[in-house]
Specification:
Elements: H1 4-7, H2 19-46, H3 54-57, H4 69-81, H5 87-101, E1 108-110, E2 116-118, H6 119-126, H7 150-163, E3 167-173, H8 176-179, H9 182-185, H10 198-207, E4 211-212, H11 216-222, H12 226-229, H13 242-256, H14 262-265, E5 274-276, E6 280-284, H15 287-292, E7 304-308, E8 311-313, E9 329-333, H16 335-338, H17 353-361, E10 366-369, H18 377-384, H19 388-392, E11 397-403, H20 404-408, H21 411-416, E12 443-452, E13 465-479, E14 486-495, E15 498-499, E16 510-515, E17 528-530
Parallel strand pairs: 3-4, 3-11, 9-10, 9-11, 13-17
Antiparallel strand pairs: 1-2, 5-8, 6-7, 12-13, 12-16, 13-14, 14-15
Amino acid sequence: MENPYEKYGAHRCEIRLGHGLSWALTFVFLLICTLAPFWRNVRELFRGPNGWTPIVELFRYDPDPENTLYQHLRAAESQIEDAPYTAAPRRWLQWSLTAGLREGNRKAAIGRDGWLYFRPAIDAITGYGPLKPEPDTVAKDPNREPWSGPLDAILKFNDQVNGYGAELILVPIPVKPMIYPENLAGSAADHPIRHRDAAAFYDQLKARGVEVLDLADAMRTMKAADAMEGPVFLKQDTHWTPRGMRASAKFVADALKTRPWWKEAAASADPARFSAAAPIDLASEGDLVEKLDLPESAPVFPGESATVTPIADAKNPGGMSVFDTASPLALLGDSFANIYHQESMKWGTNAGFAETLSLELGLPLDTIAQNGQASTGVRKTLATRPGAVTLMKRKKAVIWAIAERDLFLSETVARQENIRWDAVEFQDTALPEPPPGDAPPKIVVEAKLLRKSPFQNPKTAPYDASLYAADYEILNVLEGAYEPQQALVFHWAFKNRERLPSANYRVGSTQKLTLVPLDTQTDLRAVNQAN
């Protein structure tokens, strides 16, 4: 082959750098790469026990069956990736993709006309689902925990509830892509878009005696009145609008009133106790906008508005109560139950699904609703709370309202979203004593942390706050009286998506704790609990 350089007498253009300049450029490059991580390590080191120093924590590993080396390294990697100095570049990059190309991220998908969708909700429609197992691949950890899907967990829970003389009523709450697919796919459907195995899945549950109240067709019918009354889902949020929630509560209430046990349960009903208060207009940013993690100084989506109707309780003038353990009806739920109830969700209070269902029934409810934990967390709380068996024997029904998304996620996505289907066992413990009129005595202990539950990455979790459970050995009682040798304690993992100092408590460390009964902290009942 002819060399054109030789043919035309051309010569190569060479740029030479001296050793001194080469070393200087290398030093500047390394300085740019290491300055921010170095400063983070120094800053965290000076925070003392409240800090998380990457160079220290990466190599601080205590072998534990519940915290393998793989899990330790993944957790450390996650925290290193979430360094504060990465936030601004990441947000501005996402802003350029969202504002310029209408591109979302792995949590939020962008549809037409400002409609946003929770991406796992789309995966729940298109994935393998609960009946067909995912194939094994080389990308999966062969030592991963065995996967148990929803079918067996629901059937076992149904048997447990029936064993106490109550009925389990499963209420799958449709997700936005099922009712509004046209803003993603381009064409509307005359029926809810569901996973291909949905009918077979529900048929198997019904064949085993599980009562299923399907809201999807009712919500699809409601959609016909959107032009006059507004949509049944918020455009920029994962959840339903007040209109969709209220209609769903009425649908469930009407169905409950047809059950054989209703006449006996209604004997304690008081239709005059609950009433609708004056509507309140609210404006907020949906949780899907938050999941896009855009710069606050450059909003892409305008705020969204909604009109909520708080429910007044004549027996509790200070605020509606949905935590009545004496109620014949237990309600288990997730963020669909907590929106319009939990203040931190920014859509008002006293106007949620539990309050509205109480209004429709004339009965208070025994509500256990935890964001992101309707699959296992709420069942576990129901089964392990003080006096669990005694309280269950007083129930006529357990209403399990769960996002349909959680029922149809395949294994990989469910693991990523921390959706578990663990079996729970009811504990026959004594009912707690009625709280005294005075404030409970202060209890301060010195305790050794034995183990702690892992929790999700605050930047990618579907909720903005989480507690985590920790087992402690009591070493000394410093104030008050406390007889047990161990304690199960819940600490804050993160709040407003910011990791808190208590998240850094290390196994084996000694902590000074002020113990407060969890069931007295009503504002924490809706918060996700990693346990």
